Amino acid sequence: MTPTHHQTPHHGESAHRPGPGHAGHHEHAGHHEHDGHHEHDDHGQAEILDLDAEVLAEHIASITAWLPLTSEPRHIVDLGCGTGAGTFALLERFPDARVTAVDNSAAHLGRLSEKARARGVEERVRTVRADLDADRWPDLGTPGLVWASASMHHMARPDHALRSVRELLAPGGLFAVVELAGFPRFLPADAPENRPGLEERAHAATDGFHAEHVPHRGADWGPMLTAAGFTVEDERTLTVDIEGGRSEAIGRYAHGSLQRIRGVAAPVLDPQDLAALDELLDTDGPNSILNRTDLAVRTERTVWAARRA
Predict the structure, then answer these.
(1) What is the pTM of this model?
(2) Which strands sit side by side in the sheet containing 75-79, from one edge to the other?
(3) Ordered domains of the chain (ranges, CATH)
């Protein structure tokens, strides 16, 4: 379903908490904002977000079609927009709407603006760079729909962010929170042949990092929405299972995602597992993940649709 996909930490985890509004569409390991790698890592994360949007486009569209709206929104705010997976899906779904796209990454917003110009919709998109953990948000207008895909779990103060959204929404407006159940899986359980189950062990090796730095990943947002003054009108979980044979982009998506997981998992992984992971990530090697014909994208996304109580 959506997305985005945002994920060296995605769409961004970091050894320092990624700036909110820095939407990953799933966890990527190792987003270092404290050193000279920031620009390079921003670029790497942007590529993952773009692939996330391409591979999961049908699932994003299915969510926007499902939203229980009482009227077509004319103004939408996309919180933690990344490189625009949600923004462009919403512009397509609501042809009379304009979108305010909010993120903490100037690079992501620049990429989104380039796409908007290429698609001829630049007049319908406004970009705003903002830290959504700040006490005061910039003026984002009074939207009829606020969309937050794979961004809420990055907030250091999600309760503050939820209250801010409540104040932002137009009367009767809808707030859609979309979150991944976990980072997508790509390999069969018995792969690779020399280290079966490697992918699950690599994910397990990142659990401690994510528990410390992204404690709200995988949370049930229903009770938090209620506590912030919303009524949850509906909740839906979509299972994502896309066979890799449908798109060569899935190989690149898997490679980029596992490359970023490696950044967090490496210090914890068994040396033999790390060696096997590096074989998968070696694009010139015989065991490169890009050469595999058995890849798939498997995950779940849950969406909560809420209004002010």
Answers:
(1) 0.77
(2) 125-129, 98-103, 75-79, 145-149, 174-180, 296-308, 230-243
(3) 38-308 (3.40.50.150)
